[in-house]
Amino acid sequence: MRASWMILAGLGGALGVGGAAITDHLLAGDAHAAGLLGTAASMAIYHSLALLCLAAISGRPELVAHPLAARLVGAAGMLFIVGTILFSGSLSLLALAGLRLPGAAPIGGSSLILAWLMLAAGGAVAAARASSHRPAPEQSHE
User: Measuring CA to CA, how many Å separate 94 from each of 4, 42, 76, 129?
Assistant: First the structure.
């Protein structure tokens, strides 16, 4: 999973930078299309970075040791992928080809929000489990 997330993060980042370049160089005369593609490019870059970070932390012992935390982080990664494709992809198609995909952007955006919440939940589960397994501090018997 980590290697595939790294590959997808790299592709998403490259598409985001490419989208930003098209926005600045080819769509300068069309403010509406430039705005759509600029948003799509930014969201692709941000969420590709998030996916890359998930790839980096997904093997950490505190996540691997807690199956629920690992599943939540895994779900967050999948939602980042799906959400970015739907959100950025639909805005890009609208900006570049005038093609509307009804519902794709809101579903994609909702998927991205849910991904961030899943990531937060995974971190909370890992933190709670880690703190519950810490040994109690020794008390002096003076």
Answer: 28, 16, 26, 45
140 in a domain, yes or no? no
Q: Residue 141 falls within a domain, yes or no?
A: no
Domain count, the chain: 1
What whole-number distance in Å separates Cα of residue 50 and Cα of residue 41? 14
Digit-coded pLDDT (tens) for 72-98:
999 999 999 999 999 999 999 999 999
Per the structure block, which two tokens stand in for 52?
Answer: 């890359």
Q: Give domain status of residue 36, yes or no.
A: yes
Q: Which of 108-112, 117-121, 132-136 has the lowest mean pLDDT?
A: 132-136
Question: Whole domain around residue 18: which residue ranges?
Answer: 2-130
**What pLDDT does residue 96 have?**
97
